[in-house]
């Protein structure tokens, strides 16, 4: 049994097995579930890195469930695949790397953060199920399998958002709103899947991409799927659940929820680029995505400046940064069929948008973890009552400065690299969009200066006299994120050439996606 | 026309579900609206597999020489019903927690998170 | 909640076992007749709900233990994923018992046939695992929601 053949499925199967065993272990020992969960997610991270190396060198990987061998996509005598197939190309494993890093650090941070609550074995079990859902959404090549993993991730994240529900009322309210929104979006995705199945009788992304005819029903399915997947990703005007859900969840869960929203963004790109491949009217759909991006950027940052709750402010910034990703990839989609503009600035715009996905997960995760550290020591999230914490929490202050500089796009950090790629390419498409993006960046810096001033600067307050630094596992998680941010900021060339450029090319070369499974055509 | 009745019923279910989500104020009624939308989507999936005068797709002691309806949408609908059950159980539990802390199930009162 | 009248309680005593046996029949014959893991588990859990309604939640709490249900649920899930892992010699979820002569290993006939229970391979075992999980999970949900009623009664002074 060659283990390297089975690596793609072991990324998902090991956390699933651990998620089911943890309630049994939790009866024996109280501290064991956390350590088990962290170890399993660490092993998943190692496997993801190995699969990423294999995809970058050997091309896209395929894994067929339940067949006689892992690459048997077309059983003998059949023209179309009939089993569930995982298809991992460069864009999928790029998102998979983000998920692996973020969930491992989230579990590590939770070891100290969530220690005092009850029902810990269920917390870690749900965290592993959320990770399994996210990995499944990113790695699968079958559209109904995508719906099932989307629902697994939504249900697990609702239970985690309302985790402190027995003690306070607000997490339950936030969880209810999130559940209603994600349920509607999943059911509309199911309706669109029904439309595809009724016409073409296949459920595989690659087979659908080959058969699709862009009839009237396909246009209805596209019109249903694009807004609904943008709703799950937190784009304006469907963003109402984001501030409540991100602020009421425990801090490591918020970091993982950011990555879950980006998995829906990945699905949006996969549907518009690879599923509807040659037939799509890319200029119209591209402009719709650009308009979503512009609205998200602007409304996100203007609502963020006036907030008093630190995590709610950061959640509005998450909406605004999602707008940058939608803007970059939307420009790429709009010029996709234009042979002159695409190599000139379309490819750069897509690389900027896709690079921004990973940068956003990293620095937004770091900011949410520092907000969690502040909540852990002071017990409050209100900026008006905090002050002078830089005297006692030195490490947290440094990590906050790194995160705030990264999100504002200051030079030695990674936010600058991806934002520069987006600015210079979108400017050539339409100058007004780029100017709006730069103004939003300035407002982002303004709001984080406000947060830094009210939370960290100033004299030491008497009510926070005995506040000290947070435990070591939390510091370690934040330090790893800071190191990755600084490394990406100093050497963006390495990352863009090796990770982002193959991902952007795998979205642009649309016919390759179906050729991998259906064997050359 | 009469063969399109399941699809008309799907439209009616989904519109009634969306009406309930938008205009009703009780949290339990919102949960019922979610169930209605889910029932509409499941009915749509099953109605796709129908063939004229065909029997259920089971080989055990089946009548000979008959066509069978498509079995794949039935598997998809079963998965969707299971997911809907988990969703409904979770929504009702969260509504119970909201009642415990706010004392009311009216959405006009449950509004501490604003702005 | 208050127990129901004597007639309901007597009929419950008769039908409780029959419903559970019917549910288990649906689970085990899932690969031949309509049904399977989830459907049979849901039918069996309705027997627990019947017990809860007719006897009230205070009496039922002494009879059905929540810890046992939680343990059975984890066992069912672990059995399911272990069966999927055992096929890892070729691929994940590979049906290594079908047509092989071991447990559930008879050759399955193609086309219309009177069903043979001994066929199917890994599928009936997975049905049993999922059925065990669903019946304990749904039973647990129903018991915990009924237990939460005690809090509401105190709050509303009923």
Structural key phrases:
heterotrimer; A: 521 residues; mainly alpha; C: 158 residues; 6 helices; elongated
Description:
- The complex is a heterotrimer of chains A (about 525), B (about 120) and C (about 160).
- Chain A has 19 helices and 2 strands.
- By secondary structure, chain A is an all-alpha fold.
- The relative contact order of chain A is 0.10.
- Chain B has helices at about 5-25, 25-50, 70-100.
- In chain B, helix 1 packs antiparallel against helix 2 and helix 2 (about 25-50) packs antiparallel against helix 3 (about 70-100).
- With about 120 residues, chain B is mainly α.
- Chain C is elongated and about 60 Å long.
- Chain C has one domain (about 5-100, about 120-155).
- The longest helix of chain C is centred in the C-terminal third of the chain and has 26 residues, at about 120-145.
- Chains A and B meet through helix 5, helix 6 and helix 9 of A and helix 2 and helix 3 of B.
Structure, briefly:
The complex is a heterotrimer of chains A (521), B (115) and C (158). Chain A is built from 19 helices and 2 strands.
Q: What's the arrangement of secondary structure elements?
A:
The complex is a heterotrimer of chains A (521), B (115) and C (158).
Chain A: H1 3-28, H2 32-58, E1 61-64, E2 85-88, H3 90-113, H4 120-139, H5 143-161, H6 170-200, H7 205-211, H8 216-233, H9 241-248, H10 251-275, H11 282-305, H12 310-334, H13 341-378, H14 394-408, H15 414-429, H16 431-455, H17 472-490, H18 492-508, H19 511-518
Helix pairs in contact in A: 1-2, 1-4, 2-3, 2-4, 3-4, 3-10, 3-13, 3-17, 3-18, 4-5, 4-10, 5-6, 5-10, 6-8, 6-9, 7-19, 8-10, 9-12, 10-12, 10-13, 11-12, 11-16, 12-13, 12-15, 12-16, 13-14, 13-15, 13-17, 13-18, 14-16, 14-17, 15-16, 15-17
Chain B: H1 5-23, H2 27-48, H3 72-102
Chain C: H1 6-28, H2 37-55, H3 57-63, H4 66-86, H5 122-147, H6 149-156
Helix pairs in contact in C: 1-2, 2-3, 2-5, 4-5
């Amino acid at each position: 049994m060659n283990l390297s053949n089975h690596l793609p499925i072991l990324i998902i199967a090991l956390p699933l097995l651990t998620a089911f065993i943890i309630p049994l272990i939790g009866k024996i020992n109280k501290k064991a579930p956390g350590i088990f969960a962290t170890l399993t997610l660490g092993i998943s991270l190692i496997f993801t890195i190995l699969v990423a190396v294999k995809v970058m060198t050997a091309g896209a990987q395929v894994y067929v469930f339940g067949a006689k061998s892992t690459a048997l996509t077309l059983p003998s005598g059949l023209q179309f695949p009939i089993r569930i197939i995982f298809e991992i190309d460069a864009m999928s494993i790029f998102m998979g790397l983000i998920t692996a890093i973020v969930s491992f650090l989230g579990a590590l941070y939770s070891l100290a953060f969530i220690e005092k609550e009850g029902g810990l074995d269920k917390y870690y079990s749900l965290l592993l199920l959320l990770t399994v859902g996210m990995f499944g959404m990113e790695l699968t090549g079958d559209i109904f399998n995508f719906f099932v993993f989307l629902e697994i991730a939504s249900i697990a994240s609702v239970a985690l958002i309302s985790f402190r529900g027995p003690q306070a009322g607000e997490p339950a309210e936030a969880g209810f709103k999130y559940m209603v929104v994600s349920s509607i979006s999943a059911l509309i995705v199911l309706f669109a899947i029904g439309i595809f199945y009724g016409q073409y009788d296949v459920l595989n992304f690659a087979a659908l991409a080959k058969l699709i005819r862009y009839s009237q029903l396909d246009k209805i399915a596209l019109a249903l799927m694009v807004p609904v997947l943008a709703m799950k990703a937190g784009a304006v005007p469907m963003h109402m659940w984001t501030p409540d859900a991100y602020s009421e969840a425990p801090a490591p869960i918020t970091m993982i929820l950011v990555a879950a929203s980006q998995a829906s963004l990945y699905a949006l790109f996969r549907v518009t680029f690879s599923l509807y491949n040659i037939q799509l009217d890319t200029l119209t759909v591209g402009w719709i995505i650009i308009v979503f991006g512009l609205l998200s950027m602007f409304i996100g940052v203007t609502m963020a400046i006036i907030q008093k709750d630190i995590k709610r402010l950061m959640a509005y910034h998450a909406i605004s940064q999602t707008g940058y990703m939608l803007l970059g990839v939307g420009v790429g989609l709009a010029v996709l069929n234009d042979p002159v503009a695409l190599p000139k600035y379309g490819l750069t715009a897509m690389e900027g948008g896709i690079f921004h996905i990973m940068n956003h997960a990293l620095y937004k995760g770091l900011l949410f973890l520092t907000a969690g550290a502040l909540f852990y020591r002071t017990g409050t999230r209100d900026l008006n009552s905090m002050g002078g914490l830089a005297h006692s929490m030195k490490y947290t202050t440094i990590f906050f400065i790194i995160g705030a500089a990264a999100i504002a796009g200051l030079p030695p950090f990674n936010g600058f690299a991806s934002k520069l790629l987006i600015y210079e390419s979108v400017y050539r498409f339409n100058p007004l969009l780029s100017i709006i993006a730069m103004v939003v960046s300035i407002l982002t810096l303004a709001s984080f200066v406000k947060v830094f001033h009210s939370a960290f600067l100033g004299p030491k307050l008497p009510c926070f006299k005995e506040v000290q630094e947070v435990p070591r596992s939390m510091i370690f998680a934040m330090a790893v994120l800071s190191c990755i941010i600084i490394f990406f900021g100093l050497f963006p060339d390495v990352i863009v050439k090796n990770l982002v450029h193959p991902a952007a090319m795998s979205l642009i070369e649309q016919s390759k996606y179906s050729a991998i499974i259906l064997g050359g055509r | 026309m009469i063969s399109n009745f399941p699809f008309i019923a799907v439209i009616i279910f989904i519109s009634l579900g969306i009406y309930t989500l938008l205009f009703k104020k009780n949290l339990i009624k919102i949960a019922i609206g979610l169930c209605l939308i889910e029932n509409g989507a499941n009915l749509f999936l099953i109605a796709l597999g129908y063939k004229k005068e065909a029997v259920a797709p089971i080989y055990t002691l089946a009548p000979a020489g008959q066509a069978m309806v498509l079995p794949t949408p039935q598997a998809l609908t079963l998965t969707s019903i299971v997911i809907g059950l988990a969703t409904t159980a979770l929504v009702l539990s969260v509504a119970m927690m909201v009642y415990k802390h706010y004392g009311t199930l009216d959405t006009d009162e449950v509004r501490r998170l604003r702005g | 909640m208050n127990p129901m009248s004597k007639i309901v309680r007597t009929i419950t005593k008769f039908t409780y076992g029959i419903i559970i046996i019917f549910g288990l029949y649906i689970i085990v014959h899932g690969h031949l007749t309509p049904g399977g893991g989830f459907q049979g588990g849901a039918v069996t859990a309705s027997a627990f709900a019947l017990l809860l309604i007719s006897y009230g939640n205070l009496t039922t709490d002494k009879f059905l233990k929540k810890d046992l249900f939680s343990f059975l649920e984890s066992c069912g899930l672990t059995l399911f994923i272990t069966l999927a892992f055992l096929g890892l010699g070729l691929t994940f979820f590979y049906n290594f018992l079908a047509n092989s002569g071991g447990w559930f290993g008879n050759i399955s006939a193609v086309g219309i046939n009177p069903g043979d229970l001994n066929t199917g391979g890994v599928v009936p075992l997975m049905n049993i695992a999922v059925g065990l999980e669903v019946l304990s999970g749904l039973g647990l949900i129903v018991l915990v929601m009924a237990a939460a009623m005690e809090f509401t009664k105190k709050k509303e002074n009923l």
